[in-house]
Amino acid sequence: MINREEYRRRVILTAGQIFSRYGFRKTTMDEIAKALKMGKSSIYYYFESKEEIFEAVVLYEANILRNELTTAIKSVESPIEKMRKYVFVRMRSFEKLSNYYNAIFDKNLDHFDFIETIREKYDREELAILRLILYHGSRMNVFSIDNSEYTALAIQTTLKGLEVPLFWKKRELNIDKRLNAILDVLFKGILKK
Amino acid sequence: MINREEYRRRVILTAGQIFSRYGFRKTTMDEIAKALKMGKSSIYYYFESKEEIFEAVVLYEANILRNELTTAIKSVESPIEKMRKYVFVRMRSFEKLSNYYNAIFDKNLDHFDFIETIREKYDREELAILRLILYHGSRMNVFSIDNSEYTALAIQTTLKGLEVPLFWKKRELNIDKRLNAILDVLFKGILKK
DNA sequence: AAAAACTTCGAATGAACCGGTCGATAATTC
DNA sequence: GAATTATCGACCGGTTCATTCGAAGTTTTT
């Protein structure tokens, strides 16, 4: 029982790559096993089921995302840049994750209520981050905001709105353009005159 | 029997998109049908089998590639640029096609000997194009080549060598860098002193 | 306007596939 | 050398998938 966690990690990493490419349904245990140079049955020594692997992968990816986001906003000083970075990193990551979502909304989404849990948690965290950025901007006299709570919610809602085309129609491009437009609107309505 | 060809075309286009994303095996007739807003059985009115669709798609893509290549070399005058463009377009397209190849080399490649036929044909064509570029460069006194036949073959061999990592290891990156390096070597050995 | 030909599709089918199990067997630890 | 940890091949039963078929709808021909 020396390396159990290390092995789980390896499975998560490899499976993650395949899931992100083909989605949950189209990824087979045989493929994961082959990529790991393992017998298929051996994987079951470390994980209960395909779904458990998927769960672990999503959890793992969610953590990556969280880290990317926090380092992103730390990497710049100006509130405008913080907001801009946050939004872009968030959407880029989401694009990467959209395959997983596609995978889930194939059918049997019944089993995957854990996704809802993660989602709720991250929604709350996102809200906190947004409020922080807004608050920071307010303090630095760059933003003028009445109610940071509701402003944060408004921004979050917009971002969620952008997710939709991202995983309904695959190749809806120019997310960047649209993001920039939204940010422009946001800032021009928010910046001190 | 008014629109048979048009319908076949539509199937080829749609199926092509899905094949290129998921490969032959992971693409189902249901998906193709759904994307076409057609009953699955209806597709069989236009095509004999999934394999026939695949064959048509590959043929179609091969033609696109041929066109891209010829317009690419026409778009510039200097032999050096012709060669450079040709090589880059060729590799970029091949990258796009690598999914199909992956699809085939899953298993039962037995059935797909038509791929070999296409391949051979395009190898010949490629050789002709390369020779043309070389010849043109020679005439313009930019290249100095002893035997354009064998030089063309040498270049083709190199390009084929680059294909290998392209569909064995998915994310072998920096093809561009490697291409540039190869081109540098090629030119410095080929350019008149 | 009936017959013939063309087109679409739901339902059925049989074969392949796939997630998961089980027991045998290495490999490692005690 | 027994106990445990770890790997795997072979198998199972349910599901999926490509393909078929016939019936029904539509257009063209006579």
Could you characterize what this model shows?
The first copy, chain A, is built from 8 helices and no strands. The longest helix of chain A has 27 residues. The first copy, chain A, has a single domain, classed as Orthogonal Bundle (Tetracycline Repressor, domain 2), CATH 1.10.357. Chain A is mainly α.
Major interchain interface with per-chain residue totals:
A-B, 3 and 3 residues
Main sheet record of chain A: none
Count up the helices of chain A.
8
Rg from Cα of chain A: 19 Å
Q: What portion of residues of chain A is helical? A: over 70%
N-to-C series of helices and strands of chain A = HHHHHHHH
Q: Shape of chain A from CA axes?
A: elongated
Distance between the termini of chain A: 64 Å
Keywords for this entry:
homodimer, 193 residues, mainly alpha, Tetracycline Repressor, domain 2, 8 helices, DNA-binding
Ordered list of secondary-structure elements with their pairings:
The structure is a homodimer of 193-residue chains.
Chain A: H1 4-26, H2 29-36, H3 40-46, H4 50-74, H5 79-104, H6 113-139, H7 148-168, H8 175-190
Helix pairs in contact in A: 1-2, 1-4, 1-5, 2-3, 4-5, 4-6, 5-6, 5-7, 5-8, 6-7, 7-8
Chain A binds a DNA duplex (30 and 30 nucleotides) through helix 3.
Structure in a nutshell:
Chain A has 193 residues and is an all-alpha fold. Chain A is 79% helix and 0% strand.
